[in-house]
Design goal:
Blueprint: E1 2-7, H1 12-16, H2 30-41, E2 45-50, H3 51-54, H4 58-65, E3 71-76, H5 82-95, E4 100-104, H6 106-110, H7 112-118, E5 124-126, H8 131-140, E6 152-156, E7 159-162, E8 203-205, E9 207-208, E10 226-227, H9 230-244, E11 248-252, H10 260-272, E12 280-285, H11 292-300, E13 303-311, H12 315-320, H13 327-339, E14 343-350, H14 357-370, E15 374-379, H15 387-394, H16 410-413, H17 427-442, H18 445-454, H19 458-476
Parallel strand pairs: 1-2, 1-3, 3-4, 4-5, 8-11, 11-12, 12-13, 13-14, 14-15
Antiparallel strand pairs: 5-6, 6-7, 9-10
Helix pairs in contact: 2-8, 4-5, 9-10, 10-11, 14-17, 17-19
Amino acid sequence: MNVVLINPPLSLEDRYGKDMQKFGAVSEPLGLAYIAGYLETQGYHVRIIDAQAEHMGHEEVVHSALRDPDVIIGVTVLTPVFNAVKHLCQQIKRSRPDALVVLGGPHCTALPERTLEEIETADIVAIGEGELTMAAICAQAAKGDWSQVAGICYRQNNRITRNTDRGFIKDLDRIPPPARHLLPMHKYHLTASRVSGSDYCPTIIVARGCPFKCSYCSRTFGKSFRAHSIERIIAEIHQLIDTYQIRQINIEADTLTANKRFLHGLCRAMIAADFPSRLTWTCESRVDTVNAESLGLMKKAGCWQISYGVETGSQRLLNQISKWVTLEQVEAAFRMTKRLGISIRGFFMLGLPTETPDESRMTIEFAKKLDPLYAQFTVTVPYPGTRMFDDLQASGEIRTYDWSKYNTWSGWKGDDIIPFVSRGRTLEELSALQKRALREFYLRPRVILRFLRSVSSFYDFQKYLTGFWVLVKSRLRPSTG
């Protein structure tokens, strides 16, 4: 049996806007690669079509997907790409009505029944982690009896049925490393602010699950921290070094620093493997999960950058979104991280529910006070599966269910509508605010001088000059996307 897994078409311009696409990421669809790797161990022939990395249109994807007989097609669905997936499914069924189409990913997990209602040409939705569920679907495909497959929602006899949920995988080492050999690895790159120089920087996922309860997060992988064994992680990094000659890596987990025992063990193992002499790494974290001991060990293990989710400069809003950290904790973590020689990326959200213009200003000023090397300001989007989405839907404040508008870079894209705008505020205000925040942060003399001093290659110079011009142009032509 043949299985084709698809990362659907979505251009960088559609995601980030005409100007910001220059700095956007094209990331490996590791979720699909994990599923592919597991299916290969079960004896299935698997292909991955990454339409985003390959710049493929819908017709090209369909032609490639249907070239195999007896094919099962799986498509990953992030909320902003929903409309593209719907169009893709329609074309697949038009060309081959008997093809089995399975959808999965965060959007499907959040809204399984609704996904099947809105995409009538899809047959099954996989809920949660996809490796075991997709294998079970493949095993039952010949019979077409889905009643005993846990973790799915399916269409049968003009009815939509949801089966019992499938539990999360407790032992992540049960599934093999992602099938990177099925991906065009040379075509991927992270956001410009997340890499050091121009060297290729792949991602490795070391853990799943997050114990925290932020209202804007869907926690697709559950609330329990589950990690691969350290031995497995070290072996996978070795494989990446040997296969792709990497000199930097992005270590991915919902919250890498949440489990100190795991973190310290991983760092010591990386040091013992002499990785710090061969590669550096970046990760994401929370300010209330780091201390001097952890940061010092991370630095010794090769960590050069940490991305912290700050979100807002208003303590009231931090409490409202259940971040449950204080502004003082944020400042202390930033000071400590900088003192230990680790660079910082700060994430900030504009337009949170009930946020006032004064609180937006507080967020921008707080970002400037913290002064990370990079700052990212995004417009708040209540994604399906989050408590924020549920609350705003209950209060009638969701403005659109056109999922293609669920994009945090709407200020740069020039969208005519976004899912949510706080009462008393406007889309035009928030769009202008997103651009102004980046201008105010990056066009400070001290920041410009800092970047100029850090230039070590033509690549760096070109990146900084392009960014400078994009920000200046946004001031000269503030109405453009």
